[in-house]
Design goal:
CATH architecture: 2-Layer Sandwich
InterPro entries: IGPD_sf, ImidazoleglycerolP_deHydtase, ImidazoleglycerP_deHydtase_CS, Ribosomal_Su5_D2-typ_SF
Shape: globular
Keywords: Amino-acid biosynthesis, Cytoplasm, Histidine biosynthesis, Lyase
Protein name: Imidazoleglycerol-phosphate dehydratase
Radius of gyration: 16 Å
Largest sheet: 4 strands, mixed
Number of strands: 10
CATH superfamily: Imidazole glycerol phosphate dehydratase, domain 1
Helix content: 25-40%
Order of helices and strands: EEEHEHEEEEEHEH
Strand content: 25-35%
Number of domains: 1
Family: Belongs to the imidazoleglycerol-phosphate dehydratase family.
CATH class: Alpha Beta
CATH topology: Ribosomal Protein S5, domain 2
GO molecular function, one term: imidazoleglycerol-phosphate dehydratase activity
Strand order of the largest sheet: 1-2-4-3
Length: 194
């Protein structure tokens, strides 16, 4: 079973997170950040993962530290759950429409962290959630999972729809990249390791 549990405690947040690559789309989420909870719920469902998050943070200030630290923990859990990465497809690509919005996410589980983010959102907030935290979450996720993640929001008018398309595309691309391919006998790299 490809799964990992991460615990993180700082003066700003306390987080316990368990992630299973080969799940059933089950989510138990208590993030303290309602919009992030919504995004992680659909990420879990559309990636066929299992995700448990219990987080307490200084959300009386804003959602930044909690969102960032959940991204850190999820990235660490993905990296740990994948282990030596033997047999995985390595690359994933997904386009997802959400009403007026179209997003694409391309992933390389390469052990080389990078986030390339192309997208302009019409609003700075969705409810109380600062839209700039989408980039913050994805950057920390890519960094800690040591993945190459390219996000392209091709278009959209509704910020909620645009972000939702990103998280669904992230789920589908990660699902594809982490699938076991029976043709891959070791790791999918000429280097002999990822």
């Amino acid at each position: 079973m490809r799964t990992a549990t991460i615990q993180r405690a700082t003066n700003e947040t306390q987080i316990e997170l368990t992630f299973a690559v080969d799940g059933e789309g089950k989510a138990e989420l208590d993030t303290g950040v309602p919009f992030l909870t919504h995004m992680l719920d659909l990420f879990t469902k559309h990636g066929h993962f299992d995700l448990f998050v219990k987080a307490k943070g200084d959300t009386h200030i804003d959602d930044h530290h909690t969102t960032e630290d959940i991204g850190i923990c999820l990235g660490q859990a993905i990296r740990q759950a994948l282990g030596d990465k033997k047999g995985i497809r390595r690359y994933g690509n997904a386009f997802v429409p959400m009403d007026d919005a179209l997003a694409q996410v391309v992933i390389d589980v390469s052990n080389r962290p990078h986030l390339e983010f192309r997208g302009e959102f019409p609003s700075q907030k969705v409810g109380t959630f600062d839209v700039e935290l989408v980039h913050e979450f994805l950057w920390k996720l890519a960094l800690e999972a040591r993945m190459n993640v390219h996000v392209i929001v091709h278009y959209g008018r509704n910020t909620h729809h645009m972000i939702e398309a990103v998280f669904k595309a992230l789920a589908r691309a990660l699902d594809e990249a982490t699938m076991i391919d029976p043709r891959v006998k070791s790791v999918p790299s000429t280097k002999g390791m990822l």
